[in-house]
Each structure stands twice: as structure tokens, then as C-alpha cells.
Amino acid sequence: MVLEIPPLLLLILRDFAIGLIITVSLNLEVGIAGIPQFGRVLAVLIGALVAAAIPGRILAWSMNLPSGADYAYHLENYKIVDQITKVLQVNATLSIGILLFTLVLAAILGGLIGYACSYPALRLKEAYLGITLLAFGDALQTVSWYYSPIAGGTQGVSIPDVFRWIGTGPERYLGMVLILLGVALLVFVIAEALIRSPFGRALKAMRDSELAAVVYGKNIVKLRAETLIVGGALSAIGGALWALNTGSFRAVTYTKLTWTFWPWAYMMLGGTGNNLGMLIGVFTFSVIRSLIYAYKTEMTMLIPISPEWFEYILVGLAIIILVLFRPQGLFPEKPALTLPKKEIENIRQRIKKE
Amino acid sequence: MKTPIPTLCSHISRKYIKLGLVNFLSWNVITLVKLDGVVEMIDLILKAIAYSSSIALMASGITIIYIATRTFNFAHASMVSWGFLIMFALYSWFGGTPYYYVLVAAAFSGFLGVIIYYSVNRRLLKANASGITLMMSTLGVDLILFAAINLFADYLTNVYKVNARLFFLELKDISIGTIGGVNIRAAPLVSILVVVLVITLLHTFLTKTTLGTAMRATIENTSLAMVLGVNPEIVYVLSWFLGGALAGLGGALLSLIYVGRPEVGMEIIVTMFAGSIVGGLYSIFGSLLGGFLVGLSEYLGITFLSLSFGGWILAYKPLIPLAAMVLALLIYPQGIGGISLRRITVKSIGISSRKNKVVKD
Fold it and tell me: What CATH number has the domain bearing residue B134?
């Protein structure tokens, strides 16, 4: 097997895959539909909660292990999960089935959360909506941090390893990263197809002028709700994948900083509204963050600044510089071409002749 | 009655820290103290008043910046933290009573506000950026300021050998007497006095001085004020300075009742926003009252809820301001500034006379 890939590259690719899923879903809501989604962490957390609570419980139940609230009890949980992982390790079909099931369930619940968000999204505007969504995210984080029966609360839970069937050493990590990249690619293609569809064009029309969209017979209420559902579902998939990949769940790590503001920075760097820009933005930040993470000790020797704060300064500076000097991002959104270029050229020539 | 009643963070004494009952990692530090009398109740209420006064000051800072420059200031969190930490740093350098440094902390945060205006906000306002862009820019500023606070805390810890990541200025507060063995500190009294002073000064400034009138005029109608010769620049700078100074003042007062950590601003930013929004976001005095109410309901409400539901509910304290904010936005977006205070403020100050047309579709 190919095992010569350096772990740093795998780390970058893993962060890139997850970041891409979240950022693409954010771009769909913010860049295309113009909804100030400051509560991205909400759907991500729902996805992670699904991954933390549901598949393990189902397997525990089928194996006659405790599967109620006692499943999440931290002194029991790791033993149960250990047994489950042993079963999953030898059963590739079951592992893949559980993985797919988790992703589908996360998408459904994420969509439901998105639908719930459409209640304020139809009533409030701009900053008010942003603050409200932010509050929703914070509220869910607080509840999942302190309410232990679902996913362990402050102690967290372990999550059965659905990638163990690939192998136990580096090949597991490689396989996992490949699966993550595959899902990210799929999400990217879905989002791109949506943006290029009549639905996507209607969203852009709504973003640019709500009134004009209404005049042309577009149902704003429905469009907004649908965007939030799709966006929520996609980012819940991202959250579930992240939880499955880390192998444990602790609500405290799902902060608005990591799962809302950083994706915003990625999106703004790439160019709001342009999916290709998302690729570049997420990749750039993943590389920088992974490098900081990997060369922590060397950096501390060079500059007497704790790398943790260095990361904050970096993201903050990036946001400010982008907002001030290049609000359209590195790759600005281009007007969508609805006809092939040849056709447009033909029309142009015809107009010239006449 | 010997049932142990849990109260909030400020009830920390060295005894309980030694007992290990303090959970430093959680959102708020909760200790379990036996509260079996009127005395402790008075103490609790006094601390709730001190906490709410700080929140009221911070919330009014958010409102001032918002009504003048349309900017939802996320950097308020770090400005509060800076006020908080400046108090601690000056106290550990020079000693004395913490109260000496309250104004320095306020001035420092006000100065930070001016820097933010000139470096980021001014350019965006000139480009007529959207509310979301303005909000995003202050978020970037907040991240940098937050990192700077932590670097400063590291510096204090390494160079001066003081624990800037966990400190209790409360213990250094002046004692103004004891009731039944419980030390009553000066902080609640000072906080409420400061709030009254701020209200009086702001009111005088906004109604009696030319600059204050110019400020009101610019907030009401910028182009008309410019036609009459008001330079909006000055008003924007002033609002950033005032907003920052109120944040610093709130932070400085909060440091006398709260466990000191560099993250303190990030933890209570939601409460500040809630106060500002419950106040209606268009009225400075509404936000003072809103902040006070949200602070009180957070601090006292959770204690009373824990009396009837048990101590587990204490952990959900952050949900109270969140709920207050969301309910206010969805049900009555005009807020306090839109109801009872409105008539009074329109008559005497005129700040809240702007129509609340933004929120509803």
C-alpha cells in the first residue's frame, strides 16, 4: 500500500475536506442566498451529536449492551465503545453501513434545524438575524455541554470507529482522509449543481433584490427555508464526519469561533458567492493552520508568542484586511453564463450586422 | 432551613477554592455555599446589583456605537476584558485600592475604540459598507484584541509572577461593614453610583452641550446634520470613544465581583448584546435599563430557579440572556426603548425617536 504520504499532508487534507463541506454550505446560505448565517455551529453540532449519540447506541442495543442514558456515562461509555469497535473492525459492510446511516441521519436532522432557523430568518433582517442565529448556536452548545444523558456532557463520549476496518495503522488514516475527501467532493458537486440550477439563480435574484424576485413570481419564504434546509443538512454531514474522524465528542470544542467565524474567514478569503474560491480559501487556511499546528515548538523558539494566539491574530488580520481592501475575496464571483459562449458570440455578431 | 443553596461565581472564598468546589473550566464558576439566612440573601442581591450595573454600562456602550455608526461591535468583548485586565495589572504594579484605576481602565478601552474607528471602521463607513460587513470587521478586531489580551496576561504571568489567568480582585475590595459575619464590600454601592453618574453625565452631555446636540442630530439624520455644518467624523470618533470607555468602565467594575480571566469578555458578550437588544438598540437609556434587567434576571433568576428545581439548573445560566434576547427580537423588537421609556426619552433627549423600522419585514 502507499504509505509514503507524510502525515502533515494528510492532516492538511483532512482539515481541507471538513472545512470545504462547512464553507460550501455557508457560501450557499451567505454568498448565494444572502442570509447572514452566524449560527453555522448549530447545524455542525447537530451532526456531531448524531454521530456521538445514535450509531453507538444502535449497535450497543443490538449487542445487548446498555443503550439508554447509561450509554453516555463516562465510566461505562469507553468500555461499550471499545466492544463495538472490535465488532466494526472485522465487519467492513457494517462499518460502511453505519457511516452512511449516520451521514444520512445527520443530514435529515441538520435539515430540520435549518427549517427551525427559517422561523427567525423570515422575520428578522441583517445583523438582527445574525445575532439570533448566533444565540441559537450558543444555546445548543450550552445544553449539549451540560446535559449528559445524550452525549456525555462535560465528560464527553467516545464514538465507535467506523474506519477501523481499513486497517489499524497509517492506512486507516489514509483511507479515512480519502473517504472524507470523497464526501467533500460530493458536497461540492451538489452545491455547485444547485447554484447553477434555476433554484440557485432564483436565490441570487433574491439576494440582489428581494423585491425584483417577488415581482418575477419567486416565493421568498419558500426559497429561504429551502436554502436553510439544504445548508443545514450539508453542514450537519460535515459535523458528523468530523466527530467520526476524531473518535470522540466533547461539546466544548464546537465553539462559534471554530465552526462559524473561521468558515466565514475561509469564505471571505476565497470570494463570497464563488464556489471555486471556497476551494482556494479553505485550502490556504488549512495549510497555514496545519503548519502552525505542526511547527508549534519551532515557532515558539523563533517568536516569543504562543502559537495559539498567533492563530487568532492571523485569522483576525485576514478578516480585517479582506474586509478593508478586497471585500470580494481572491476570486470574485463572476456573472453566471446562462448560454454557451459560442451562442453568445453568435448573437453578438448578429447584432453587429444589423 | 439547612438546605445548601448554590449561588454564583462571586461567592468564592479561599476556603471553597481549597475545598476544590470551584469548577474553573466551566462557563461560570459555581460554588456551593450554605445560604441559610437573610444576610446571605442581602449579599447575593447586592452582588446581583453590582453585576447588573456593569452589564448595563457595557450594553449602553454597544448601543452608542450601534446608533452612531450602524456597527454591531463584537470587539466589545475584548474591550471589556482589557478594562478588566488593566485594573488587575495596575493593582498588582502599584497596589492601593483597585478603585484608583477604574478611570484609567475606562480611558484605555475608550482609546482602543478610537483606534478601532480610525484603523477599520472609518474606511468602511466611507465605503458605505453593509451592516454585516461592519459586524464582520469588528469580529476580526476582536480576535486580534483577544490574542493581545492573552499575550499581555502571559507577559504579566511570566515577568511579574502574578497569576493573570485566574485572579480575585474581589478580595482586595474595600469592606464597608459586616452584617452577621458576612463582609459587605463597596463594589455594589460604587457600581450603582457609577451608573447614576453615567446617566446624569450622558444626559447633560447630550442635551446641554453643543457637541451632544450635534451627536444627536447626526444620529437622527446624518445628511441634514452635515448640511448644518456638523462634522460626522467627530461624532463617530466620540461614539467609539464613549462606547469603549463604557465597556472599560463596565469591565473594571466587574473585576471587583467576578473571577478574573482574560476570556471574561467573550463569556459575557451575549449578556451585553441581550441587554442592548432588550433595551431596544435605539435608546441609550433603554439599553442601560435593559442591561440591568438582563443582568438581574440572569444572576438572581438562576438562583431562584435553582431553589425550586435543584442545583443542576445552575449550569444553564447562559441560556437566560440568550432567551431574553431571542424573545425580545422575535416578539417585541422595539424593546424597552420602544415602550415606557420612549415618551420620556423623546421629550427630554430625543435619542429613541428614530423609528424602529429595521427589524420587522
Answer: 1.10.3470
